């Protein structure tokens, strides 16, 4: 598992849920700004860097937890494959094992409403989170943008012994590697408040390790399991 990922992180639209504003151009511009910015003046600092994962954190004075940014590399996996691993929640349950429960509560033309139960290490109480998930596609560059937004209270009742976390900012950008269209470069932005009695310095420390672990889980499942299953089904 990788609890840090979801410690750091997890007016209506036509055909959408009441109160959901949709994936706006303003949302997209904010995501793109945070992706490209590494300015110390804006609070960014480098946490770690390997051949497949470069992780940054941003101190946000108005938020309890850092914004985490990961630049992830998936050699030999095309963007469509990475998007499928993320979007197909039945597949995701198999490699993203931090979640004992992933339920799609609503499907709309513009978005989905998804409930996630997050398994936490003992003695920490489990968390859950309810999110709107929306996607945008740029066909000209084969780029997929995924935005995760906090859903309002009342969609799912609180469960005994489970603490409801909250999404501050969470997004993914999936695009081809500029030198190899059959490999993928992905940016993840993660800022979720786990709430409860987890010291923030622990949450921030663990969360900085999460993007690389998440990347390895997806990559290893795709290469060692999914590609073999897909090949045998042909």
Short description:
The protein is of the alpha+beta class and 234 residues long.
Shape: globular
H and E string: HHEEEHHEEEEEEEHH
Tell me the β content.
35-45%
CA-CA gap between termini: 32 Å
Low-confidence segments: 1-17
Count of helical stretches? 6
C-alpha Rg, in Å? 17 Å
Mean pLDDT: 87
Assembly context of the chains: single chain
Counted beta strands:
10
How much helix is in the residues? 25-40%
Largest sheet: 10 strands, mixed
Structural class: alpha+beta
Textual characterization of the structure:
The protein contains six helices and ten strands; from the N terminus they run H-H-E-E-E-H-H-E-E-E-E-E-E-E-H-H. It has helices spanning 3-8, 25-36, 79-87, 89-95, 200-207, 210-233, and strands at 44-49, 53-58, 67-74, 101-107, 112-118, 126-138, 143-150, 162-164, 166-177, 180-193. Strands 1, 2, 3, 4, 5, 6, 7, 8, 9 and 10 form a ten-stranded mixed beta sheet that branches. Strand 5 and strand 6 form a beta hairpin. The radius of gyration is 17 Å and the shape is globular.
Key terms for this structure?
ten-stranded mixed β-sheet, alpha+beta, 10 strands, 6 helices, disordered N terminus
Helices, strands, pairings?
Blueprint (H helix, E strand, L loop, with lengths): L2 H6 L16 H12 L7 E6 L3 E6 L8 E8 L4 H9 L1 H7 L5 E7 L4 E7 L7 E13 L4 E8 L11 E3 L1 E12 L2 E14 L6 H8 L2 H24 L1
Parallel strand pairs: 6-8
Antiparallel strand pairs: 1-2, 2-3, 3-10, 4-5, 5-6, 6-7, 7-9, 9-10
């Amino acid at each position: 598992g990788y609890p840090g990922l979801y410690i750091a992180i997890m007016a209506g639209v036509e055909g959408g849920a009441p109160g959901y504003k949709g994936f706006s151009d303003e949302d997209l511009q904010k995501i793109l700004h945070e992706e490209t910015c590494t300015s110390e003046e804006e609070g960014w600092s480098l946490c770690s860097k390997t051949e497949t994962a470069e992780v940054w954190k941003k101190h946000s004075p108005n938020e309890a937890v850092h914004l985490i940014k990961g630049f992830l590399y998936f050699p030999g996996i095309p963007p469509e494959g990475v998007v499928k691993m993320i979007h197909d929640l039945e597949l995701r349950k198999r490699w993203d094992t931090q979640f004992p429960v992933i339920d799609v509560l609503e499907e709309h033309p513009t978005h989905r409403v998804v409930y996630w139960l997050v398994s936490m290490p003992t003695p920490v109480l489990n968390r859950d989170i309810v999110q709107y998930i929306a996607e945008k596609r740029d066909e000209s560059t084969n780029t997929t943008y995924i935005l995760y937004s906090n859903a309002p209270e009342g969609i799912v009742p609180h469960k005994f012994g489970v603490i409801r976390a909250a999404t501050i900012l969470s997004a993914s950008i999936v695009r081809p590697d500029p030198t190899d269209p059959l490999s993928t470069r992905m940016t993840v932005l993660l800022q979720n408040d786990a709430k409860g009695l987890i010291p923030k310095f622990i949450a921030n420390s663990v969360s900085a390790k999460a993007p690389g672990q998440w990347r390895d889980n997806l990559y290893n499942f795709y290469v060692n399991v999914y590609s073999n299953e897909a090949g045998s089904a042909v």
